[in-house]
Specification:
The structure holds 2 protein chains of 2 kinds.
Chain A: H1 5-14, H2 16-50, E1 55-60, H3 73-80, E2 95-106, E3 113-121, H4 123-128, E4 133-137, E5 146-150, H5 151-156, E6 165-168, E7 171-180, E8 189-193, H6 194-200, E9 208-212, H7 219-228, E10 234-238, H8 239-283, H9 285-293, H10 298-325, E11 331-336, E12 341-346, H11 351-378, H12 381-386
Parallel strand pairs in A: 3-8, 5-7
Antiparallel strand pairs in A: 1-9, 1-10, 2-3, 2-9, 4-7, 5-8, 6-7, 11-12
Helix pairs in contact in A: 1-10, 2-8, 2-10, 2-11, 8-11, 10-11
Chain B: E1 7-20, E2 23-36, E3 40-44, H1 51-58, E4 66-71, E5 74-75, H2 81-91, E6 92-95, H3 107-112, H4 122-135, H5 151-163, E7 169-173, H6 181-198, E8 201-205, H7 209-214, E9 217-222, E10 225-228
Parallel strand pairs in B: 3-8, 3-9, 6-7, 7-8
Antiparallel strand pairs in B: 1-2, 1-4, 4-5, 9-10
The chains are: A alpha+beta, B alpha/beta.
């Protein structure tokens, strides 16, 4: 048995002020660390929830997003008749041939322009996205110049609220409804009748095809057959996979930014912890000598100080996570680089992030405490006792 | 007086010197003497005479340049660092001038510290600690922290810590040096009791003639050499 843990803990408690100040420094770093992870998590969660695992997205080969894609009408007809496509209650295939276009709208608050996705939909589009629910007004009538807007767009962009009128594609479009799409990317879109949109935008081809699989396990076989068919130039992805790929570029950027910031900051925090622990060792030289004289081994001294520093780090971690948990109240709206459109998402905290942050703080404590603890364990007993 | 049986401490040709820059300062030069079991020995001498160094070497916390120290049949001058630490844990009790209690631990926990290095379980440790705190008369203060105790009381806790593992020898470096006269007297009586009642061997470094009076034997060190009074 070694030196009791209460020794390490009570020493931290005895110098509460120093402990709190050092832990706060580490807490700030953990805050940045956790906030970056939360941001990435929030982004991915938003985009991934946009998709449903049963849905398949068909895009032109090598196009990264719906905006870049084009599917010819003859290919669309062929794809519609495949046996894997599920059939709805009305006997119609659960398949939507959609048009996706980017337009430029001004924000309500800053008056600066930003890109918004316009999606031309068919009746099947709604059945394929059960997360999308009409919140106010009604859905657009087929064949009319009417649109519904996602909640995020309705709130942030001029002319997108219920009853307002938008002008794009050389026509006026009346907003007849606002839909709630939860925490998905659809909240940042405007939907209208596809055929009206194709005429207005003078697009002869669809952007993408989305359908529900009759049997979700048949995806791999379906993908292999469709992509190998010489008549077709499309690529099949599960909808969840498509949106995950969409988020990857930004998530990667956030991760790199977060790591760079965290590494730089953590060096500062680790030095802070090292100074604190060196001071702790210097103040307790006699104590260390006494413990060694009583028969405690060098490694017991080493571990007592390492534990003290670990505890210090974990205190910082708890402070940081506590602070970061408040970031969940904030919603960020920014450019989704994959589609060049606005996307709103929030900081999301989960157990994996809490766990990673605590581990990170413990590592900072460990690194910060290593040298002082080593010094404590290397002291000569007689010299340490003479320091009285 | 002490029974003269086989010696518990055997010191032969013990030498030690310090290096200060290029200068070599001899502290002890070829000291040999024995201490019998159950004896109360006082080491006296002017500052720098090497008495504390000698005590530290007997206690196994300082190393000799030359010579042998054998305590209870163990030649401690041959032990490696870890073995020496294990030996100290069971064989030596330390009493310091400034008590050297751990400020963040209670009296009970301070006394319990050396027992953490043994195989005793929690209940057995508690029994031992309570027994020795009774011996030093501080059973009612065991939940107090050192800062809540007087100097004399702290030294008694330190003595309890020194005897809790029932070691063969007790080493005391100026045990009364930081105490007022009444407290010093109390501590000396307690040490005297440890020798007579519990049969401990005590080796004490002191400047205090009153402390030396309690000892059976006073050895004077001067310039690293020994003389007996």
């Amino acid at each position: 048995m070694g030196i009791p843990y209460s020794y390490s803990f009570r020493n931290l408690w005895t110098r509460r002020l120093t402990t709190v100040l050092t832990a706060s420094g580490m807490g700030l770093v953990v805050f940045v660390f956790a906030a970056t992870l939360m941001l990435t998590e929030g982004l991915q969660k938003t985009l991934v929830q946009t998709g449903s695992p049963d849905n398949v997205m068909l895009l032109r080969k090598s196009s990264n997003s719906e905006v870049q894609s084009a599917v010819e009408r003859d290919q669309a007809a062929l794809l519609e008749s495949q046996p894997e496509v599920a059939v709805g209650e009305d006997g119609e295939p659960l398949l939507a041939k959609e048009l996706v276009v980017l337009i430029n709208l001004k924000k309500r608050v800053t008056d600066t322009p930003s890109n918004v996705i316009i999606r031309g939909i068919t009746p099947a589009s709604l059945k394929l996205r059960p997360a999308v629910r009409l919140k106010e007004g009604r859905m657009p009538r087929p064949g009319s110049a009417e649109v519904v807007t996602g909640e995020g767009v309705a709130r942030r962009f001029k002319g997108c609220g219920l009853g307002e009128t938008l002008r794009f594609a050389m026509r006026d479009w009346r907003v007849v409804g606002v839909f709630d799409a939860g925490a998905t990317g659809f909240s940042s879109e405007i939907w209208g009748d596809r055929d009206q949109m194709m005429q207005a935008f003078r697009r002869p081809v669809y952007s993408s095809i989305i359908f529900r699989l009759r049997d979700t396990t048949s995806f791999d076989a379906y993908k292999a057959r469709v992509e190998g068919d010489p008549r077709l130039t499309v690529e099949a992805k599960r909808e969840t996979r498509y949106y995950l790929d969409q988020s990857e570029a930004m998530a990667k950027f956030l991760r790199i930014l977060g790591m760079v910031l965290t590494v730089v900051f953590s060096i500062g925090a680790v030095i802070g912890a090292t100074i604190t622990m060196y001071a702790a060792v210097a103040n307790r030289v006699t104590e260390i000598g006494t413990l060694r004289a009583l028969g405690f081994q060098r490694k017991s001294i080493l571990s007592a100080f390492v534990i003290e520093s670990l505890l210090l780090g974990v205190c910082g971690g708890i402070l940081g996570i506590f602070g970061a948990s408040f970031m969940q109240l904030i919603t960020i709206s920014t450019m989704n680089w994959a589609s060049f459109s606005e996307l709103a998402f929030s900081f999301t905290l989960n157990f994996s992030i809490i766990w990673k942050s605590l581990l990170f703080s413990a590592v900072m404590g460990l690194v910060g405490g290593a040298l002082p603890a080593f010094r404590a364990s290397r002291m000569k007993i007689v010299e340490a006792l003479r320091a009285t | 007086m002490a029974q003269t049986t086989e010696p518990i401490v055997r010191i032969r040709n013990l030498s030690k010197s310090y290096r200060r820059g290029t200068q070599i300062i001899p502290v002890l030069s070829g000291i040999s003497f024995d201490i019998a079991r159950g004896e109360f020995v006082a080491l006296m001498g002017p500052s720098g005479s090497g008495k504390s160094t000698l005590l530290n070497m007997i206690a196994g916390i300082d190393s000799a340049d030359e010579g042998e120290i054998e305590i209870g049949g163990v030649e401690i001058t041959r032990l490696g660092e870890s073995d020496l630490a294990r030996w100290r844990a069971v064989s030596v009790g330390f009493i310091f001038q400034f008590y050297n209690l751990i400020p963040v631990l209670t009296a009970f926990e301070n006394v319990e510290l050396p027992l953490l290095l043994t195989h005793l379980n929690r209940r057995e440790r508690r029994e031992h600690v309570e027994a020795v705190l009774n011996v030093v008369g501080l059973a009612d203060r065991m939940d107090h922290y050192p800062s809540q105790l007087s100097g004399g009381q702290q030294q008694r806790v330190a003595i309890a810590r020194a005897i809790v593992t029932d070691p063969e020898i007790l080493v005391a470096d100026e045990p009364t040096g930081d105490l007022d006269r009444a407290s010093a007297e109390e501590i000396l009586q307690l040490m005297d009791r440890l020798v007579h009642e519990f049969g401990k061997t005590v080796i004490m470094v002191t400047h205090d003639p009153r402390a030396a009076e309690k000892a059976h034997l006073v050895r004077h060190l001067e310039k690293g050499e020994l003389s007996v009074t």
